[in-house]
Structure formats: C-alpha cells, structure tokens
Amino acid sequence: MLAACSRTRAEPEPLPAPRPPERAPAPTRAIGPTPGHNGPRDAAVTDDDLDALWQRQLMIPVEGAARHTIRDNFTAPRGNGRLHGALDLLAPRGTPVMAATDHIIGRLAEGPVGGIVIYAYDADERFVYYYAHLERYRRGLAVGDRVAKGSVIGYVGTTGNASPKTPHLHFQVMKRGRGRAWWDGPPINPFSFFAFDGIRP
Each residue of 149-186: pLDDT tens digit? Predict the structure, then answer.
C-alpha cells in the first residue's frame, strides 16, 4: 500500500453518526468516460472504485485553483522509499478550503505531521477524503456535519511538518479502510478525477 506523507497513526475509531445536512448548491456537469488513474494503484482499488469516484465529480478543494494550474505530485518520493500518495495544492495562507464533494466530517485532529487535519467520508462510506496542514477549521465545524461540495470547511496553512514558507493543502483520497480503521485505506490519485475548478457555487 502507498503511504501518505502527512498522516499519523491513531487508534482505530468507529464512524461517527451523521448530523443534519448543510446544503449549498453543487455544480453539475455531464459525466463523460472515467479517466485513467495516474501512477501506481493499490490492488484493493478496482476499476469499479474509479468509476464510482468519477461519478462524484470532484471539485479542486482550494478556492481559486484551476485544473490547468495544479501539479500531479502523487508519486513524489518521500522517506523510506514511500510515495507521496496525495496532492499538494499550493495557495496563499488563509485561502478557503472547500469540500471536494458532498461528504460527512468523520474526524478532526491535530498532530506533528499533518498539523490541523480533517478526515471526511461520503454517504455510502466508500471513500475517505483527507485535508491536512490547515491554518484552522471553519467556525463551528464538527464531527458528524454533512457538508456539500463547495462548502468551506477550513483554510490553507502550514501546520504540522509543512514548511512555513510554503502554505498548501495536502489533499488525499483513499478507499475506505477495512474494519475500524476506516480512515487508513489505500490512496487513489485524484488528479485526473477533478471535474471542477475551485470555484464556490
């Protein structure tokens, strides 16, 4: 399994009970063929999983980010022969971070590697979305909140092991982990699965 550079191990936790939904108009788009996956893919990630991820029509989760300007650094090397397994989306400190798709906030945490982080999952519990190095959360954000695609959930920062000179969002998509470790599944490169630029509805 590919390892993510900015996640710390923690005790497995059950999925929290969802809270009432927060709604924001989500953009729509005609869905074309499922794009290919860039880079190595864990054997646990199937073609059906990729089809399902494409159906979610992900938005780049940083306000103002455009698909033609982001870089695919999913396969960038990290220590001990690991790969990055995520995308680093550079933006000025304090730039709003938005939900990449409709999902439920599953875990809010802070640690020395990822800093201030959000783990979220979709309603059918198939994928997990990880947002790291945040400056802060959106005011009032809580575990169990349902957030709509394009809703602000936090702000770009440099917490954890990010360089203070390079604010960015470390964004990772994972297939849901087995058992109670739902937040620790195999990563999927989201680069070719972004259907929308980071423009709030």
Answer: 999 999 999 999 999 999 999 999 999 987 677 878 89
Q: Which of 184, 164, 163, 181 is nearest to 172 (CA)?
A: 184
Cα(115)–Cα(197) distance, integer angstroms = 25
**CA triplet 182, 185, 189: central angle to 5 degrees?**
135
Which 8-state DSSP code applies to residue 127?
E
157-183 as b/e, with b when 16 or more CB fall inside 10 Å? bbbbebeeeebbbbbbbbbbbeeeebb
Q: What share of the chain is helix, strand, coil (3-state, %, to 5)?
A: 5, 30, 60
Arithmetic mean of pLDDT, 25-32: 61
- Predicted structure pTM score: 0.84
> Is 6:169 a contact under the CB 8 Å cutoff?
no
pLDDT of residue 75: 87
The residues, any chain, with a CB within 8 Å of residue 135's CB and separated by 6 or more, are 93, 94, 116, 154, 155, 156, 157, 158, 159, 167
Kind of pairing, strands 146-147 and 103-111?
A: antiparallel
